[in-house]
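Hey, can you fold this one?
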Amino acid sequence: MEETHQTPCPEGKEMIHTHNEHATKTCGSYISEELKAYIVQRHGTLELDPLPSSLPQDPLNWPLWMKNMNLLMVAFHTMMATFTAAAIIPAYSVFAEKYGISVHQASYLTSVQILTMGIFPQIWSPIAARFGRRPIFLVSVLGACICNIGGCFCHTYATQMVTRILNTIFICPPLGIGSGVVTDIFFRHERAQKMGWWTLMTTIGTPLGPFLYGFLIQRAPYQWMFGIFAIINFCQFLGYLFFASETMGFRTPASSNSSSTSTSPAATIKDAKPASWTDSFKIRRINPAPFTLTSFLSYLNLALNPSVLVPAIAYALVFCYANIAIIVMMPIAVGEKFHLNAQGVGLQYIAIILGSILGEQVSGPASDWFLARYSARTGIRAAAQRLWLTYPGFATVVTGLVVWGVQLQNAKDGVWNVTPMVGAAIASFGNQIITTTLITYAVDNCPLRSSEVGLFINMFRQIWGFIGPFYIPLMFENLNFAATAGVYCAIIAVAGFTTYVAHPNTTPTTQCPTQRRGLKAEQSADAHQATTPKTKGVGDIAAESARAAMASPETQTPRGKDTTTATAIGHAVPTA
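Sure. Predicted structure:
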């Protein structure tokens, strides 16, 4: 294949054989023997993407239990954002009586939260980039706790609306920056599985809320709902305060003339300083960059990247019609047709929860396995190979919606029928496969902007989800259930076909539009200053070290752990 560098590298840089999507060679910073020894000792291989630093505080060097604990806290935080918005659905009739409004007006308490979740993560992201994610998460859950306490004492519809908006503003940060947390903590070969934890919690928060709170509203005053929210938020605050660690600021982006997905280590062994216990309670600025309008809107230029734009649109459509439409129509379609109370309606959400959980058991591990098999066979890590898993997902969603709509249409009034819920479970299964795969694919193509990718995708999902409830009930009212489900299936089929058409043309690249602009100029400057390297290339050194590590009993990966096939420094290719 064509090589991006035909001339020697500039002084201070050496040739790295980068077996990424384009199988190119690139110039990278020299990596010391001390750092290589640390990485091999800690991880058992140099074939990692991204390459960790030598700092024990670097999230990539954390023990697995610590990585999983931090990810689970962020994933649960994400679930609470959608959970609190949807949990009030069983209380619509209570709010209507309490505030003297219609049930339809009460539903706006949820709709406005959906819209807020689509807008305000963009505000939090630049702040997190300058002060770190952990302080933002602490402020987030503490603010949400206070707002939920206020919700217990609202006596008018307007004041309750204000508390719901403020609560969502505070609780929403991980909806946008959660993908950045996954990218900072985990290597690329395990990214889909771990990204799936975050996406699953985002998905099941919506049906889990009305499922659990249907029991509560049936038996206790609605104030208990907000009180439990506040208790959970305060427990989250304590969890972040004592157990969470910062995930930002340990690595610097690789040079823009690199095609690698890696980031360069920010420090070497000699730079490592043990952190004191009190450091975790200090809030300091980690990025001196000033706040500008561009810093709040820069994520929008991801629309120029089809490998982010196409997944964002396809995912938004599927999420709206295979998740939100079913959830919104559950009290109206299922509750009224089968004469169910709030508790009975809540039980129907079990189908969506189970379908989503089962879908995640397939999507994350299967995506990583598929990519690993392809990489082992070809030596190329092409993120586009993940997309093949979405097509069974689209087919499953269409099948589930057809079953749900047709069986609901044919069901007898007042006689409960499980078959529509089977269709809902099938649709949720496919929705989760599509969710994890498309988001991981988009992040793989812009790993240095993973948080912005999360913001971009979240914006499409939430805004489309906000618009949906305004016309979805009208469609079911004017058409029948089967016909409306057919329309949604057609829209989703178009989304799947668009993904398929764009698949060959969205050749995975690890450089987003803004990262590519200065590429040619920087390469020309490097070529002009080029000198012949006087030392062995880092790719050769890495290969020798990797072979020695694999041959040595002391550094061989223990049985039962992941092993890798040596291809190039900075890219792990798990052996299938």
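Confidence is low (pLDDT under 50) at residues 1-29, 252-274, 505-511, 514-576. Let me know if you want another pass with a different chain boundary.
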